[in-house]
Amino acid sequence: MKLGPLAAKQASARHTTARELTNLRTAVGSRRPETYLHPGQSHVAVNPVVLKMILGSCAGVFLFNPILAISGATHFMLPRHEAGQPSPRYGDVAIAGLLEKFLALGSKPQNIQAKVFGGASMLVALRDVQGAHFGHIGQRNVETALDILAQASIPVVEKNVFGNRGRKVSMVSDTGQIAHEFVSASDGN
């Protein structure tokens, strides 16, 4: 089942039902390979693929350029690199690297859209801990992503963040269409 432009926009603007998700998987799965991103990985797709990740407190940032029909994503664990070797496990390093790749492929910042997911508070024991290095790591991951994207003038056109449940998120690279579902109803304890 191929979704038309209006149906695709409506489906991505609200929580995707299990049936819609199954239809999306069926529609795109047979035509596009899948690229699964683990924490600390990024990928830019110049050919059609389905970019996928499973997020808990990690944040996932998807970028889409509808003019060039290219997409990219990064899956990061921690908000900011502070010491040691820079790594894409940190949001500031990962997002900067992803944006650099987009610009190298000819994207203009005004043509890039962002979609942000994740940042759940998976462990009850850490939800109320205060301090810069403790507390709600998921919230800090999402805030870092939103801050970096705002500084780069990249609009966030879709997001589903926070809460206490993990998410499976997929994006069709050449259309920017997102499908997501929650993976757990538990609080992680």
Q: How are the secondary structure elements laid out?
A:
Blueprint: H1 5-13, H2 18-29, E1 34-36, E2 41-45, E3 50-55, E4 59-65, E5 70-76, H3 91-104, E6 113-118, H4 137-151, E7 156-161, E8 167-172, E9 178-182
Helix pairs in contact: 3-4
Structure description:
This protein is an alpha+beta fold and 189 residues long. The chain has one domain (5-182): 60s Ribosomal Protein L30, Chain: A (2-Layer Sandwich), CATH 3.30.1330. 26% of the residues lie in helices and 27% in strands. The chain has helices at residues 5-13, 18-29, 91-104, 137-151; strands at residues 34-36, 41-45, 50-55, 59-65, 70-76, 113-118, 156-161, 167-172, 178-182. Strands 2-5-4-6-7 form a 5-stranded mixed β-sheet, with helices on one face. β8 (167-172) and β9 form a beta hairpin. α3 packs parallel to α4 (137-151).
